[in-house]
Amino acid sequence: MTAREAAAHFGVSPATVKRLVAEPREDFLARAKARRDRAVQLRAEGLKHREIAAEMDVPIGTVGRLLHEAKKLAAHEDIEPASA
Question: What's this model's pTM, rounded to 2 decimal places?
């Protein structure tokens, strides 16, 4: 059922439905970090993108994206000043 369908069924707006069923941001970010970390770990162990994809049960393109994001975030953390 789409958010629009659920909204019509319950007499609320689609935004209300999305807000009520959405995953908390902190949970999403933690899950995304765990996926990136796992891809980086497998790459550090010498696995190729195809092998990482098979291990994580994701498309090869997703592996490339995860590794790219991890590299980009690591570079960004290196240039950020330490917070007090």
Answer: 0.71
